[in-house]
Here is the input.
Amino acid sequence: MFARLRAERRLALIAYLTVGYPKLALTPALVEAAAGAGAEAIELGIPFSDPLADGRTIQATSQLALKAGVTVAHALEAAKAARARTEVPLLFMTYLNPILAFGLDRFCRAAHEAGVDGLIVPDLPPTESADLRKTADNAGVDLVFFVAPTSSEAGIEAACRAATGFIYCIAVTGVTGARAQLDPAVLPLIQLVRRHTALPVVVGFGISRPEHLAALEGKADGAIVASALLDAIAQGPDDATARVREFLTGLRPPP
Amino acid sequence: MSRGALVKGPDARGRFGGYGGRFIPETLMAAVEELEVAFDAAQRDDGFRRDFESLSRTFSGRPTPIYRADRLSQRAGGATLWLKREDLCHTGAHKINNALGQVLLARRMGKRRIIAETGAGQHGVAVATVCAKFGLDSEVYMGVDDMARQAINVDKMRLLGATVTPVDSGSKTLKDATNEAIRDWVTNVRTTHYIIGSAVGPHPYPVMVREFQSVIGREARDQMLAETGRLPTVVVACVGGGSNAIGIFAPFYDDPVRLIGVEAAGRGLRSGAHAASILAGRPGVLHGSFSYLLQDGDGQVLATHSISAGLDYPGVGPEHAFLHDARRAEYVSVTDQQALSAFHETSRLEGIIPALESSHAIAYAMTLAAELATDDIVLINLSGRGDKDLDIVRGAAGV
Here is the structure.
């Protein structure tokens, strides 16, 4: 995915959706709609009861999905159904405990079988990741690690050593959630990360406006839009697919 | 089991056996590493120890006495019950020991803003108190349900100059207050130190909280020897996250003394409305460490219930998980009703109103004492006083 985009010198747009929001039955269609509206990869959030790296929006969508009874098994089914509709790369984002409860090995194999390409686990730092790295690797699933504005040089190095797929560069010191401004300090952070890895560098947290993407064009390999997309869905959950299309094409008009 | 294996633990990765560790977002990693370095340096620094000991004496009111509860012992029938009077600490609970230690540490690190989570409000009051003393800004996260049932402590925190921030997400109790405090920390980590109130969280919190709280056990051990010429047969303490328990247990690790932690059985372990993580949970990751956790089959953390806000938490400190698996400590549970009975009996028979949390330990100790010989000694950690609980007790009496 990134190789092609880099050859085209374009920023990959990655859209985040909470599995089961606004309704479980809609998730595969939303993935297809996002891919059709220019998303080059889709991050599927498996809801967790205690999402401590997430702000209000993703807390709320996770709570709604959990109240509706969404499980890890449902997320796997939704990913499989999405994969049947589109070739777009799929990543799971969830906290460590649901993966532990499902079983590391069983989860990674099931994710691979469902057509999921990578995993993002925000409460799993490289130092605690040996087991999941091994099982993800065996199953052929990428495992993404984070760097943050507060990361030490050693922390950046550890993330770059441990990661497969890409490096997730956190744009703000804070939790997820749409922000008005993109902190320009993320640009030197991207440069610093590139000194330690040849992997693609993808920026997330706070990305919500066309000018944020424009600022990252040519600097990062991708940008993740999450809370702002979910906020757009929340404006009209009955017409969620149209909202996804409208928001993503508004964020970056088709070439 | 050797003293070194346990007391010098955890290992370099913050593991007690397989439990503990550091499961946190990358944004916090550098701060937690900085904290570990600062804590290690403080432990080796005589000046830091002197400050901690001096303020423990002059500000917190240490040492707290041990007290032989004759009438309670008579009621139980059997062994003699002794109480370690942490309820006599400034602010009314053992929580001040940890708050004082961590504020001193935050000052060393140059952090001027302190945040905390609180359940019963005892930790929040302790943090607000020490911050007032040192002129630091403090913000305390508290579930809205807990703010209602522990309203007096909310008033105290505000009086002391702390900002009390209501948390209305999830269960509206301690678990969600902790989530919200961690989110604040992720956002303000450069200027802010997070004082976790129990022996939970990512390494080095569990070991740090144990070290600051183990003054309880060191004093109690010396006092038992001085007063009775021997060590207690059993030490009993309530366990939510487990800070008062680990504090009184740790100095007895190497002694032939039974250690018993009492979890909150709420309306009964079979009711599903309880907070007994070790007895009814299985290992998982919450709030930065791997330990016993009340969770459903899908790894979602379960809502808990206890009449005592301080025990109303789905996790438990990783060292307790280790002590349980290693069979160095035993874990049992006591229901809301049993705790309430002990609350009333201790008030009437001894003239001491215990916190509902500590009443769990008393309730179990009384049952146990009846099974022991008359020359056995049961030492109970009376971790806090019960004035904060009068509304709850009044409400329970009306039910």
